Amino acid sequence: MTVQETASYLEGYTETLAGACATGRRLTRDELASLRGQGERAAEAGIGLRSLVQAHLAAARAVRPGLSAVAADHLLAAIEQAVDAFAEGHERAQRLAVRQQEAARREFVDDLLYGRSDLGRLAERAVRFGLLLSHAHAVAVAQGPEPYEDGHPLLRRIESSLVARFGDRRILLTTKDGRLICIAPGDQSDVLNHFAKQAYGATNGGRVAVGRAHPGAGGVVHSYEEALNALDLADRMGLDDPVLHASDLLVYPVLTRDRQAMSDLVRSVLGPLRHARGGARPLLDTLTVYFDTGCVAAEAARRLNLSVRALTYRLERIHRLTGADPSDPVHRYTLQTAVIGARLLDWPQQEV
What we know:
The chain is of the alpha+beta class. The chain has helices at 3-7, 13-23, 29-44, 49-63, 69-72, 75-114, 119-128, 153-166, 189-202, 216-237, 251-256, 259-270, 281-292, 297-304, 308-322, 329-345, and strands at residues 136-143, 172-176, 179-185, 207-210, 214-215, 243-245. A hairpin with a 2-residue loop joins strand 2 and strand 3. The longest helix is centred in the N-terminal third of the chain and has 40 residues, at 75-114. Helix 8 (153-166) packs antiparallel against helix 9 (189-202).
């Protein structure tokens, strides 16, 4: 930083020091306001505070020889007031700039994840935040036991881990609706896998979903929605996997695309279970566990805390009520599809 570059931000400074030292007075309100204003202008120009403080001290040393011994005794106090006012203005401008940048970043993230902005303009803004929307991107979403907002220590910790591991990989880490969001180039699954591992560990058993990679600005929205749908699906289906990949769950949206047809299947196939003693729930749970274990009776019985004989009795009861035999491969597909539909539609708690 040259003397010429800092000179415009020290205008009137030596005169202010000399005037204050002459009588030992404190700096006036107008003098302090002027110093704060110069500090703000310097910050807006991108000049660091350290070099400016050095320039103020150097200018004060130049004033010292021209002061009387009495006046010189007041110099340090005047410098302290002047530099403090200048630094206050500089820091105020810096805080304002940070708030404006945070607001711009939040607005960009909202527009990006809602897909509600002009795509051309969105792509231009994305470059500022390290994304090239002409490429494909994938989105990972992590949720934990508490909501997370920008500035949360957990977000900073995960960001530090990503930077240390991958450096500048055009990654955007942010929050949305209390969840942690990571947007990365679609061909860099290692980034999202590392994010998922860090987020799962840091959220004390939270859950992470990863959407598929899609091109363009609209692709980010698509991937984000896939991740959200995967989290919702995991809740409805009772999936206990800590990391979910939308690509592994594509069968479920297919099954529920025609909701009316799925509702009809659940009612016609599983509806008779309502007439069982204790209602449909115990027998539906039996089918769920039986299919989850690959139709291995011994393992299903163990998970249900039943004897194999008791499990077999339940399966026979289901056969009598529905007319579909869980052990028959042809019937099994229909029953398993209906059970998946019941979980997706929250039947029998919700009428379908």
